[in-house]
């Protein structure tokens, strides 16, 4: 038995759910920061109608948000396919990303229904 000890399959340790959870938390923080910036300051310079510094910050935060969202969903799918151990990080990823997407789409369609001429 000791001869074949090195040939036994060891379970691969992956951190997909952990990184997916971290990206979900970062995504929530970025969303909160962008809401704070847009609610406290003007994004467009009223004199020459160009984006000021805060508008550029919101664009950068939006790109980071989308990047974190897409990578987090990919890591969640990898976590499911690799059959990682299920704990709170796994369940937050499984339920958090779809709920957040449904919430954002609901806000989008609600705004579109209000602003229709």
Keywords:
single chain, 117 residues
Shape: elongated
* Helix/strand/pairing category: mainly alpha
Write the H/E string, N to C: HHH
The number of helices is 3
Helical percentage? 55-70%
Kindly, what is the distance between the CA atoms of the first and last residues, rounded to a whole number of angstroms? 77 Å
Explain what you see.
- The protein is an all-alpha fold.
- The chain has a domain at 24-91.
- The protein is 69% helix and 0% strand.
- It has 3 helices and no strands.
- α1 (16-40) packs antiparallel against α2 (53-81).
- It is elongated, with a radius of gyration of 21 Å.
- The model has no long low-confidence stretch (mean pLDDT 84).
Please outline what is shown here:
The chain is mainly alpha-helical and 117 residues long. It is built from three helices and no strands.
């Amino acid at each position: 038995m000791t001869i074949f000890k090195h040939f036994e399959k060891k379970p691969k340790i992956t951190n997909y759910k952990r990184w997916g959870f971290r990206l979900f938390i970062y995504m929530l923080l970025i969303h909160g920061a962008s809401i704070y910036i847009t609610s406290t300051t003007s994004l467009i310079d009223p004199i020459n109608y160009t984006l000021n510094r805060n508008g550029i910050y919101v664009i950068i935060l939006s790109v980071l948000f989308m990047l974190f969202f897409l990578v987090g969903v990919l890591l969640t799918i990898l976590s499911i396919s690799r059959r990682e151990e299920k704990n709170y990080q796994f369940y937050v990823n499984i339920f958090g990303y779809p709920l957040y997407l449904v919430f954002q789409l609901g806000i989008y369609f609600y705004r579109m229904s209000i602003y229709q001429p």
